[in-house]
Amino acid sequence: MTLFTTTTTVLAAGGEEVSGLDLFIPPWYDIIGSAVVMAIIGFFFYKKILPTFMAILDERTAKIEGGLNKAEEAQAEADALLAEYKAQLSEARTEAGRIREDARSEAGDIVSDARSKAAADAERIVDTAKRQIEAERQTAAVSLRNDVGALATELASKIVGESLEDSARQSRVVDRFLDDLEASQVANAVKGK
Predict the structure, then answer these.
(1) Would you give the DSSP letter of residue 20?
(2) 16 alpha carbon, distance to own chain's centre
């Protein structure tokens, strides 16, 4: 006999031979015993293990749904903050534009004020210079008149041969000489025209 011989008959637990399809179908007492054990295990599973699993699954579902709700709330809050940020940015840009325009306007006002002050200062300086020139001209005319008078008196006293030391006489001579000089200048100016 060989080791690998196939036999279609097997001895059952009671010592009887089983063959064919009966090899795959167990006896009825095994089926009933297995069914009772299966029912006990199913009942225990249904009453003890299944509720625990369901509680764990429900808890996980609640956590997931809570996380999704929190994520949606966070997204909504982020969207609101983004909209607020955009509004503030737009407002800041508008404010910056207004400030820039105010600065330009103020700069124009400052330049205008500086120009008007400079013009006023220039006019004041010109007026002061004119007055100073007029005062210096008058001072020079008085000084020139005195110098010319003194020279004329000295010259006249040398020509006339008499002393003109008297101040009243001297001023009359000087005034007459200057009047004659001015009259000759006016006559020359009238002839030149």
Answers:
(1) G
(2) 102
d(C-alpha 165, C-alpha 148), whole Å:
15
% of the chain residues with pLDDT over 90: 42
Q: What CA–CA distance (Å, rounded) separates 34 from 64?
A: 40
3-state secondary structure 136-161: HHHHHHHHHHHHHHHHHHHHHHHHHC
**Stretch among 46-60, 74-88, 115-129, 143-157 having the lowest mean pLDDT:** 143-157
Residues 6+ apart with CB under 8 A from 27: 12
Amino acid at 163: S
Alpha-carbon distance 151 to 178, whole Å? 12
Q: Is residue 176 pLDDT above 50, yes or no?
A: yes
Reported as type and span, the H/E element at residue 18 is strand 17-19
Inter-residue contact 36 to 30 (CB < 8 Å): no
Please compute the mean of the pLDDT values over residues 71-88 and round it to a whole number.
92
HEC profile of 28-87 = HHHHHHHHHHHHHHHHHHHHHHHHHHHHHHHHHHHHHHHHHHHHHHHHHHHHHHHHHHHH
Q: What angle do CA 178, 182, 188 make, to 5 degrees?
A: 145
Dump pLDDT digits (tens) for 14-48. 566 766 777 778 888 889 999 999 999 999 999 99
Determine contact, residues 36/25, Cβ cutoff 8 Å. Answer: no
